[in-house]
Every structure is written in structure tokens, then in C-alpha cells.
Design a protein that fits this description.
By secondary structure, the protein is of the alpha/beta class. 47% of the residues lie in helices and 15% in strands. The strands form 2 sheets. A 5-stranded parallel β-sheet has the order 3-2-1-4-5, with helices on both faces. It has a two-stranded antiparallel ribbon with strand order 6-7. α1 links the parallel β1 and β2. It is elongated. The termini are far apart.
């Protein structure tokens, strides 16, 4: 297998199709709900949660078998069934149309794999084994969750706030770089780890005042 190219994609308002209505499809839909995409589900039957999401208008559910036209205008397609023939058919149709497709637990019919994710606010770490061992990816995620605490997400959000401020006030790219590095390598993260949010913010303010005053 060729090496996989890791990338983060903005799914806002993009049409994503999920074929299947079981537990695997349920997990795919649950995670997609966080990304502002338009979610379509095609399956004769569906888990209760999928029905509830459809009733609340979070998703569109078509209670029937897959039809070729279902992939029209799709950006991304997930096949979450245990039917190899459906996997192959959908994968072929998607590739003919240039649509990215993921057939769960069926690597030959996948253009991409969904990684295990560690998320703390804007900080996202994605773990992939290229489809070779999803179980090991989940183990690594569990281990990283013990290390990458909410403090890391708070720190990234703070850095994001200062980034916009710096970009608006300082034109020299080299000076910008110095400011960002000073913030990143300071003890601000350590303060957040022990719950000292106010002290962390004071440290940020002190650093920024040196460069912006």
C-alpha cells in the first residue's frame, strides 16, 4: 500500500452520504454531526438514534436500499454495511465520479481511512495505521488522552487569540515568529495544567505588552 497523505478537511455545508443504518453507521454519523456537513443516510432500517437525528432534522434518512443516484453531488461517501457487493459497487461508482469513498473494514474499496482522534478544543491529533490495525490506533488514542489534557486545548485557543492580534499589529514576519515562539516555549501551558488560568493570562498579557506597546 502507498503511503497515505494526512489532511484535515473543512466539511462545512458539504454533502456526505452514509450507506447503512447499524451501529457502525451510527458511529460515523455521530462524529460527522460535529462538522457542519449535510448528512444523508440510506438504509431500509436504522438504529433508534439515527431515527431520532432524522426526526430532529439533524440528518436526512431515506429508509430504502441504495440507488446509484444517491451519490449525486456528494463530497464524501461512507459505506457502513457488511455487504461486499454493495461496497464494491459504491466504491466503483464513486471513483468514476471522483468522489472520496470509505468502505468500513474493506481497505481495497477505500480512498481514505478515518483516524482515531484526540480532540481538545481546537487541538486535534489524528492517529492512523493505514487501515492495518484500527484497534492499535484506538489504544494509542486512549494513551494520548491521558497526556493531552484540556489544558492543551486552552493553550491553543489562547495562542489563536494572540495570533490574530499579532498579525493585525506587526508586519515584520521575523518579529511575529519571535513572539509566537516566546509564547509557545513559555511556562503558560504549565500554569494551565495546574489550573492557574488567571496567571496564564497575565503571562500572555505581559509578553504581548512587551512587543505591542
Amino acid at each position: 500500500m502507498a503511503n497515505l497523505y494526512p489532511v484535515y478537511i473543512d466539511l462545512t455545508d458539504k454533502k456526505c452520504l452514509v450507506i447503512g443504518g447499524g451501529k457502525v453507521a451510527e458511529r460515523k454519523i455521530y462524529h460527522l454531526l460535529d462538522y457542519g456537513c449535510s448528512i444523508l443516510v440510506v438504509s431500509p432500517q436504522a438504529e433508534n438514534s439515527i431515527e431520532k437525528w432524522a426526526h430532529r432534522k439533524f440528518i436526512q434518512w431515506y429508509p430504502r436500499e441504495f440507488q446509484d443516484q444517491d451519490i449525486t453531488d456528494c463530497f464524501m461517501v461512507f459505506v457502513a454495511t457488511d455487504d461486499c457487493q454493495i461496497n464494491e459497487k459504491v466504491s466503483r461508482l464513486c471513483r468514476e465520479k471522483g468522489i472520496m469513498v470509505n468502505a468500513v473494514d474493506d481497505p481495497p474499496n477505500c480512498d481514505f481511512y478515518v483516524p482515531s482522534i484526540v480532540r481538545q478544543n481546537s487541538l486535534v491529533l489524528a492517529i492512523s495505521t493505514g487501515g492495518k490495525s484500527p484497534a492499535f490506533a484506538r489504544r494509542l488514542r486512549s494513551e494520548l488522552e491521558q497526556v493531552i489534557t484540556p489544558a492543551y486545548g486552552e493553550f491553543v485557543d489562547m495562542l489563536g487569540e494572540q495570533r490574530e492580534l499579532v498579525k493585525g499589529h506587526i508586519k515584520d514576519i521575523e518579529i511575529r515568529k519571535k513572539i509566537f515562539e516566546e509564547l509557545v516555549y513559555s511556562d503558560i501551558l504549565d500554569l494551565l495544567k495546574v489550573g492557574e488560568k488567571e496567571k496564564a493570562r497575565e503571562k500572555v498579557k505581559k509578553c504581548m505588552s512587551y512587543w505591542l506597546d
